[in-house]
Amino acid sequence: MSGRPVFRSFAANIRLHRMDNKEEKACSCALGRIFGFEPRIALALISHKGSAAEVFRAPVREIDDMLGPYSRYHGQITAAAVRTAEKELEELEQTGIAFISHTEDSYPALLKECEDAPVGIYIRSGSPENELFPKRRFISIVGTRDISPYGTEWCENIVEALSGTRDKPVIVSGLALGTDICAHRTAVECGLSTIGVMATGPEQIYPSRHYSFGQKIAGTPGCALVTDYPPGTAPLAVHFLRRNRIIAGMSEATILIESKAKGGGMMTASLAFSYNRSVYALPGRIDDPRSQGCNILIRNNTAAPIVDLDKFASELGLRKIPSSGSEKNSVIDLSTMYGEGYSTDSIGMMSAILMNIRRKRGITIEELAECTGLRYQEVLKYTGILETDGLICTDLLQRCTINKSMK
What we know:
The chain contains 19 helices and twelve strands. Helix 17 packs across helix 19 (376-388). Strand 3, helix 9 (149-163) and strand 4 (170-173) form a beta-alpha-beta unit. The protein folds into three domains: 1-93, no CATH class; 132-315, Rossmann fold; 326-406, Arc Repressor Mutant, subunit A (Orthogonal Bundle), CATH 1.10.10.10. It has helices spanning 10-13, 21-34, 39-49, 52-57, 60-67, 79-94, 109-112, 129-132, 149-163, 179-189, 211-219, 237-249, 264-274, 292-299, 309-315, 326-338, 344-359, 365-372, 376-388; strands spanning 97-101, 120-125, 138-142, 170-173, 194-197, 224-227, 253-256, 278-281, 304-305, 363-364, 392-394, 399-402. By secondary structure, the chain is α/β, with parallel strands linked by helices.
């Protein structure tokens, strides 16, 4: 053969035979180190030979023929590479870090469909690797590090809406500043599992300000830190761009919260679209640079706009949990709090205001006056009382939200 080899797709040609699992992991790990930035070549070799272990058993001449005469990988597929990988995996196991190869059933199913999927991934989790990915649904949420209050609020709204479904998807993001950490934190607060895909080796957490929360993710059952970079990999810019394919690849849908016309979030959304996955974007003001990317994707029909959270969850095929009647309970709660100092009518007005804020996070005082039939000054008075007592929060634009501690 000459030039770059051409193989059939991995999924079509894989014929994994019975073998020692540790051997396959070590061989996959070695191939990942050798072909880290070109996983397609490694996957093609595995597909052709049937397993990573069989690649290393093949005669050197056969491998050279498959790679081509001018390959820069000539002479790197050796027993020494496997021994190095075996030692690495043994050391990682002592620190609670696992490795899942592309040939294992526990590897993320959707990611396995991508032609540029990593040969293997390193995992830090409070759950066994064989329980982490199979039979679970993954939704990725990405966006700018410079997230606005609008983006923060709607990132939280979206995650909260997803937590109110029977299917309880896992929230995937990149552990970065801004949108990523907002999605991760809200997921944990709402009782959802979350996956942080890192651009460093598995032993690191970047940025350092997220170290404690990253450790919390790694130690929480159902959650995990994931990377395809081997130990010692530094957080270089190119690594963040490449890790985006994992975020998009392992998720059935990707949501872009805010992004400039160019950015990592835009790249992740574009990758998701190229993988034939669902892409959604939060619409924003046309004069806001942080919403340009979202608006462009919507204009180009690359992403569907998120305009109704119930409809959005339904489009994802997530079944909504019926109301438990908690809205009615707010009347009783307010009666307990204000029974001695306020009339029944006043408590009823505050209850109506609170229920409408529950129904529509971010509702303005003017909108509350319209939907409750109260005068503007009355709503202003009662929202002031509710805010003073910590039940709600009101921003400079008079948008009201339920205080998280009261949910």
